[in-house]
Design a protein that fits this description.
Elements lengths: L1 E9 L6 H6 L3 H6 L2 E9 L6 H7 L3 E4 L5 H11 L4 E4 L11 H10 L4 E10 L6 H18 L11 E4 L15 H12 L4 E8 L10 H17 L2
Parallel strand pairs: 1-2, 1-4, 2-3, 5-7
Antiparallel strand pairs: 4-6, 5-6
Helix pairs in contact: 6-8
Amino acid sequence: MGRISIIIPALNEENGIERAISAIPKDEIERMGYEVQILVVDNGSDDSTGELAARAGAEVIIEPERGYGKAYKAGFARAQGEIIATADADHTYPIEDIPRLLRILEEENLDFITTDRFTYMEDGAMSLSNRFGNAVLNLAVRVLFRLNLKDSQSGMWLFRRELLDRMVLRANSMAFSEEIKLEACYFIKSRWKEVPIRYRARLGKSKLRKWRDGLGNLCYLIKKRFIR
């Protein structure tokens, strides 16, 4: 039997963390031949996120230094599965679709799957300003790297753990999301695919700092193009 590690970074997500964990279709994944490891990375929460995650059955990792990339790196270090899946703790991503993504990975002999939030996005799931910011970043990825990604900022991926040994992941901030795609799809040229998913309105308060994170991600794309 194989193993899949599902990593969920969380910062003050007590409103959604239990629902996100309970949505994981463990029985279905196990019938596919995989043991399931659920890792929640508590990234400096000052609410009950960690306690609720543990109560829901997750293994909780404490990463006090805040940062989206920092959280994922802490999760990767503890992941035991040969397959890694990710999702956010705010119930925006369809974590129940992991078996579907896993089948695509297996049947199409892929290494990396990223997801497209825009094709089936629910009404109210993303503000117009966030849509505009994502469009700018997607354009930058196409111009700088010639990658036709519909969603360069999506936070749901499924990939073979062995890729991590070949990736150069330096970002500790929100830019980590675009960097892992660039590493998988551009630099190491893995077998990859972008799959449309449903994307829902979040539970709880957003931690995204629109202008700061957006400009930071754009600058990181430019830097990444010339300095890996």
